[in-house]
């Protein structure tokens, strides 16, 4: 991820530009069908180039590289530790495949729109190619129908994008995803299959071992001489075949898959969250923010005493200079896998306290010091807080996306 948080203001006029681009692409194809085979590949190629540029400019390549390193480390662990290692390898592959499946689901609406747009442009071309030179077929009604379909679908996409407050760059990113969503789905499916196939590799080793064998020789005649029966030692090479199941490159492939897949649709996830309405000052009593254990989210009037006490105890040990009082806590998000409650995020009327595991950042920041807050992610959510001193804090939440979005809304409300 880039080290600086982007704080550009949404461009409300960008959807109009996207709609104009759709018209620039579609009208020449309908009026001059022969141009279709040139325009559509050009649009797909340009979209792919912008997609790569977006990932690079947003700093996602470093995350992909770190994913490859993690995959290599997990593969090495699986080779060193006989039983636990392969289990970790399998769980890592399943985790990344699950993220990819979520991204595929997010791409389906764009893929459907893309197929309909391309089909409405290809039909006039097919009609033009199949036209007989000896007959002057009138395909004007079909062209009008295709043009109407293309315009209607473009309008649907326009109004869909208009609901999301994005920057121009993000709008262009979503536009590029529209045209390459089909190939991206195929690529993700191929990467899933490749990561499963390459999870383990089977090696067969054949070893020739010299072995001494006792051989009985019967009595026989050698010329005119009788040779009595005897035994002799004979050396033979015995072939031994050994089969080994070793970790393959599946972890590396799954790591790349797990890092690339969420980047495809996390932009949309972030924008949906950014578009959420700000609650009024009565939000503390809003039913939206009442305790919901399914979301790992708790309000002050319905805390789980055991969990909140565990959190306060651990947080006070982690932040000895900041005494945290249970009575000051308004909201609590539980980030523990088995529900002990010692890790999570609390909101008071003055500050945010994030106390997570050793692998994650823990911090306390006052609302007055918050300059900007955003949320990203599809499979898991990451709340990014930019302080007035340009320092960036990340809250990585894995237990409930809905609870994470509530937490984001409240932090944004408190910091206004």
Automatic annotation (TrEMBL):
Per the UniProt record, the lineage of the source organism begins with: Bacteria, Pseudomonadati, Pseudomonadota, Gammaproteobacteria, Enterobacterales
Keywords for this protein = Membrane, Transmembrane, Transmembrane helix
Q: Which organism is it from?
A: Providencia alcalifaciens
Q: State what protein this is by name.
A: Uncharacterized protein
- The transmembrane segments are 12-31, 38-56, 68-95, 107-127, 142-159, 171-196
């Amino acid at each position: 991820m880039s080290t600086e948080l982007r704080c550009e203001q949404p461009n409300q006029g960008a959807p109009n530009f996207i709609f104009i681009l759709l018209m620039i692409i579609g009208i020449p194809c309908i009026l001059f069908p022969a141009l279709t085979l040139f325009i559509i590949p050009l649009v797909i190629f340009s979209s792919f180039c912008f997609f790569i540029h977006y990932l690079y400019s947003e700093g996602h390549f470093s995350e992909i590289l770190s994913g490859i390193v993690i995959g290599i480390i997990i593969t090495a662990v699986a080779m060193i530790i006989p039983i636990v290692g392969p289990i970790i390898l399998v769980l890592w592959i399943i985790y990344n495949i699950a993220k990819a499946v979520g991204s595929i689901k997010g791409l389906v609406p764009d893929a459907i729109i893309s197929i309909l747009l391309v089909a409405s442009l290809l039909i006039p071309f097919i009609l033009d190619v199949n036209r007989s030179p000896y007959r002057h077929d009138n395909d004007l009604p079909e062209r009008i129908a295709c043009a109407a379909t293309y315009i209607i679908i473009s309008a649907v996409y326009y109004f869909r994008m208009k609901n999301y407050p994005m920057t121009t760059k993000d709008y262009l990113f979503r536009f590029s995803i529209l045209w390459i969503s089909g190939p991206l789905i195929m690529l993700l499916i191929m990467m899933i299959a490749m990561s499963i196939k390459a999870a383990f590799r089977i090696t067969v080793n054949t070893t020739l071992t010299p072995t001494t064998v006792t051989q009985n020789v019967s009595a026989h005649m050698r010329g005119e001489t009788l040779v009595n029966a005897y035994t002799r030692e004979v050396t033979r090479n015995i072939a031994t075949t050994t089969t080994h199941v070793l970790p393959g490159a599946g972890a590396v492939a799954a790591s790349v898959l797990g890092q690339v897949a969420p980047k495809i649709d996390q932009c949309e996830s972030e924008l949906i969250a950014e578009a959420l309405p700000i609650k009024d000052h009565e939000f503390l009593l809003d039913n939206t923010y009442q305790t919901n254990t399914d979301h790992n989210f708790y309000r002050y009037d319905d805390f789980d005493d055991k969990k909140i006490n565990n959190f306060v105890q651990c947080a006070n040990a982690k932040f000895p200079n900041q005494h945290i009082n249970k009575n000051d806590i308004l909201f609590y998000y539980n980030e523990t896998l088995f529900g002990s409650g010692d890790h999570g995020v609390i909101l008071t009327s003055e500050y945010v306290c994030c106390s997570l595991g050793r692998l994650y950042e823990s911090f306390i920041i006052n609302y007055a010091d918050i300059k900007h807050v955003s949320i990203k992610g599809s499979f898991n959510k990451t709340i990014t807080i930019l302080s007035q001193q340009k320092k960036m804090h990340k809250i990585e939440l894995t237990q409930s996306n809905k609870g994470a979005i509530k937490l984001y809304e409240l932090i944004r409300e408190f910091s206004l």
